[in-house]
Design brief:
This protein is of the alpha/beta class. Helices cover 52% and strands 12% of the residues. The strands form 2 sheets. It has a 6-stranded parallel sheet. Strands 2-3-1-4 form a 4-stranded antiparallel sheet, with helices on both faces. Helix 6 runs antiparallel to helix 7 (136-155), helix 14 (313-364) packs antiparallel against helix 15 (370-400) and helix 14 (313-364) packs parallel to helix 16 (406-415). The longest helix is centred in the last third of the chain and has 52 residues, at 313-364.
């Protein structure tokens, strides 16, 4: 079994291409089912956020699994897999583990150390668990990734630079107003997780008055009430735009919410710029809105180009050290998990040989009593267990060491073992509780 991560992010993919790959929450279970229906994919977790779409998978063959995953992504994006190649990255086994832990700790985030990704990874794992698409390998990977992420935030100051993409976007927005954002009227479009984070951050920074609008009015009202903001019906979006200086758009809509026509209607008579922070993928702001006079659009592409992450090198180095150590530990477990089915097959083969020989003994020596037969059977089984104990313990130790991935193959060849692809590894102990 191979571990593989295939993904696209703000680092490799323009928003226009990334938004075609995004998997809405309502489609996650269907996408997981589609992945598991592929010939080589045995387990899958899908992480889809505003700036990354990643497939974590356990596959029975690397090249076949990669082809299966790319086919599903290509179908989702409406593109041939070859057309996606320039935008996708692929990580295999140890590199896949390292990437997963870097994602969980925020090292791979647009804002280094942002904590929101940990919750998003937890949600992705929860959906996979509910869909029964995560097996032993991905259960262990996700649980350890969540634990490593928590450890990084608890033991270092990695998250002091900025708690989220929202904070970074607001820092950019503030540069367009001489007096900063304090007391600037603002509107948040969307009342999901990103919208809630936006309202909370705006409130903390003293921005206001704050309005919230959402297609689901009840959700907007709850969010607005929690922070002393006001809820606005989505039908009044255009008129409210004329009354604010700052807009954060963070919906899950598949079509732009802020069109050129809608924004143009809010511009006459304005004396200050209208800053639109588009934190959604797919985009909430129509691309040609950026060409309107007096309008500033900051989207995910803009953030990726503007942000610089070199201000907290010491904390980053500390987290890098944590990730390196944790990757080594997990890869050791992964190698042990890989050899476990082979060890189980060897024991099964030994038991079958013993059972066959005892059956032959019964035919050759019918004079033996049941007590004598039981004693012979006990002795033979004990001898076989002793003979197998040292080599099976040793092969686990060797398999867990660097370069140990060859031992399972050698063992299968030496004893002519057949190990089914679906063999369980339940006898491999977990790494630990992800707390």
């Amino acid at each position: 079994m191979s571990l593989i991560v295939v993904g696209a992010s703000y680092k490799t993919t323009p928003v226009a291409a990334l938004e075609r790959l995004v998997v809405p929450a309502a489609d996650l279970t269907g996408t997981l089912d589609q992945l598991l229906a592929q010939p080589y994919v045995r387990e899958a977790v899908v992480l889809s956020t505003c700036n990354r779409v990643e497939i974590y998978a356990a596959v029975s063959g690397f090249h076949g699994g990669l082809g299966d995953i790319c086919a599903v992504l290509g179908e989702r994006a409406g593109s041939a897999p070859a057309e996606l190649a320039n935008h996708l990255y692929v990580h295999h086994d140890a590199a896949a583990v390292e990437h997963t832990f870097r994602v969980a700790t925020g090292l791979d985030s647009m804002v280094i150390g942002e904590a929101q990704i940990l919750g998003q990874l937890r949600d992705a794992y929860h959906v996979a668990t509910e869909a029964d698409s995560a097996g032993r390998t991905l259960h262990e990977l996700m649980q350890q990734a969540l634990r490593v992420g928590k450890r990084a935030h608890a033991e270092t100051g990695i998250d002091k630079a900025g708690q989220s993409v929202v904070t970074a976007a607001l820092d950019l927005a503030a540069s367009h107003f001489p007096g900063g954002l304090a007391d600037r009227p603002a509107l948040v479009v969307g009342a999901g997780a990103m919208g809630a984070l936006s309202v909370a951050t705006l409130s903390r920074l003293g921005v206001g008055p704050i309005s919230v609008t959402n297609r689901g009015a009840e959700r907007a009202t709850r969010l607005a009430t929690a922070y002393g903001a006001s809820a606005v019906p989505i039908a009044e979006l255009s008129s409210r735009l004329a009354e604010v200086d700052l807009v954060i758009a963070a919906t899950t809509s598949t079509e732009p919410v802020l069109t050129r026509e809608t924004v143009s209607a809010a511009l006459p008579g304005r004396t200050s710029p209208l800053v639109l922070l588009d934190l959604a993928v797919p985009r909430d702001v129509e691309p040609d809105v950026a060409g309107l006079p007096g309008v500033v659009v900051v989207d995910i592409d803009t953030l990726a180009a503007e942000l610089r992450a070199g201000h907290h090198a010491a904390d980053e180095a500390a987290v890098e050290g944590i990730v390196e150590a944790e990757v080594e530990s997990f890869v050791g477990w992964l190698r042990g998990a890989d050899v476990a089915p082979t060890v189980a097959a060897l024991r099964t083969q030994a038991d079958e040989v013993v059972t066959a020989e005892l059956a032959r003994l019964r035919q050759r020596r019918p004079d033996l009593s049941e007590e004598q037969r039981a004693e012979v059977a006990h002795t033979v089984h004990r001898v076989v267990r002793r003979l197998l104990h040292t080599p099976t313990v040793k092969v686990r130790q060797l398999a867990a060491a660097p370069g140990g991935d060859q031992y399972a193959t050698l063992l299968r060849q030496l004893f002519d073992l057949e190990v089914p692809q679906t063999a369980q590894v339940d006898d491999v102990p977990p790494l630990g509780d992800p707390t």
